[in-house]
Amino acid sequence: MALTLAALVAERPLGLRVRAAEAGLDRAIGWVHPTELTDPQAFLEGGELLLTTGLTLDETTSPGYVRRLVDAGVAGLGFGVGLSHESIPRSLVDTAEEVGLPVLEVPRKTPFIAITRAVSRAVAADEYASLVRTGKGQQELTRTAVGKGGPGGVVRKLAKLVDGWVLLLDSSGAVTEASPSARPFADEIQDDFARLRAGTLVTVAGEYEVVLQTLDTRARGVLAVGTCEPLDAAGQHIVNTAVSLLSLALEQNREHVDAVRRLRSGLCDLLAAGHAELATRTMKSLWGGVPEAPWSVLAVAGPANARRSLADALDAEVAGDKAFFGESGAFMIAFGDVEAVARQASRIGGLHAGLSDPVSTVDFPAGLRQAKQAAEAAKAERSPLVRFAEHAGRGFLEMVDSQAAQAFSDSLLAPLRGHDKTGRGELVASLSCWLEHHGHWDLASARLGVHRHTLRNRMRKVAELTGRDLDSPGVRAEFWLALQVSART
């Protein structure tokens, strides 16, 4: 803590007396500077305790002298009496009181060097305390970083060391780590976060001064530190240490994430090359499980940065035994329970997904081709998702006479529509959902929100009304085409 004027006055051996602006004695003393110049502004930096005997001062010149000192930003004035003046000029005291400049009377017996030594001792002690605090803080942060605390531990430790709150933000401004009670400030600093490109930005959030500092990583990150008082030198050094440690930790984590993603993509390449047994065995070894077959393969097309954002989101949400994802050329692909993947893709701009028919592990190459074709169709149509079955059906319908196709559809679906109008069931919607899921009762019934026995009863009713066997692949194809024609009208 820097020495204040009040603390200096409290040192009784100096014999200092306050003669003006006692309310300003809480000012810190940066240094001591003795001078007899009537205008010493050019030699001052601000924060000094200026010492003078008033050799060139009198009742006329004192007011202007005091105002020049205020303009220079001095902390206070020490006026030595008993030499040029038996007492401090009245006009100097009155003006100092008016403008709020503390004036200390220095008795004849107190040499100016004694005041300089007192301030020097305090400054040295303050610098030593700052150095000790800095070193201790750096040690604590380093131990936390190399221990089990990780980035979150560093953030929480930093908040304690600076007696404030700390947020770690990713490139989008989302909070990745936060000290206790810090998250509510994230919204308040979003505008400042958007303005920050690199380096440091100081702003205000409520009663806190906030320092925003970018991290030295490939993926732009920002550390936000809020304190009630501006950071002192030790606090700044401690924050800089935290920035370095977090940059290193996040960069190492990014390298680890990139390595894992390359491994995921390699396993996808193995599946695409027909080495299903080797790929699934490796998945079980590394992730503890494999998505249950048959697999619906999802391919996502779009800019590389958007695909990377999708991968970042999937790292936190998708479990390895439910769905697996990786890259295949210019596509992000996933298989298994891909609903979470498709949902995340729809939230990120510029991505278009294609979904294959369910395939076995050995038929993965065919499923991947279907998914990529559907993704290309989705991209061309600017649609978030296209299913391969729909894409293939639309392709076939383009070759069929539209009037003949419409007549066929109306004829085949008429009994089902008539039944639905009575309010006794939703046969058309149920048939469409069941075909979309390739006759998978549990998946289709879950999508419809009905029990699988209810769905079985509806499919039996479809067969009864139309006189067609739904176990026949040809019949299913006819129904699917009829439904596609109906959907286009």
Average predicted confidence as pLDDT? 86
Characterize the largest beta sheet: strand count, sense, and whether it forms a barrel.
5 strands, mixed
Rg from Cα: 38 Å
Alpha-carbon distance between the two ends = 80 Å
User: Approximately how much helix is present in the residues?
Assistant: 40-55%
**Which regions contain 5 or more consecutive residues with pLDDT less than 50?**
none
The assembly state of the depicted protein chains is single chain
> Number of helix segments?
17
Query: What percent of residues are in strands?
Result: 15-25%
Structural class call reads: alpha/beta
In spatial order, strands of the major sheet run 1-5-4-3-2
Shape annotation: elongated
Number of strands: 15
Structure description:
The chain is of the alpha/beta class. It contains 17 helices and 15 strands. The strands form 3 sheets. The protein has a 5-stranded mixed beta sheet with strand order 1-5-4-3-2. Strands 7-6-10-9-8 form a 5-stranded antiparallel beta sheet, covered by helices on one side. Strand 9 and strand 10 (222-227) form a beta hairpin. It is elongated, with a radius of gyration of 38 Å. The termini are far apart.
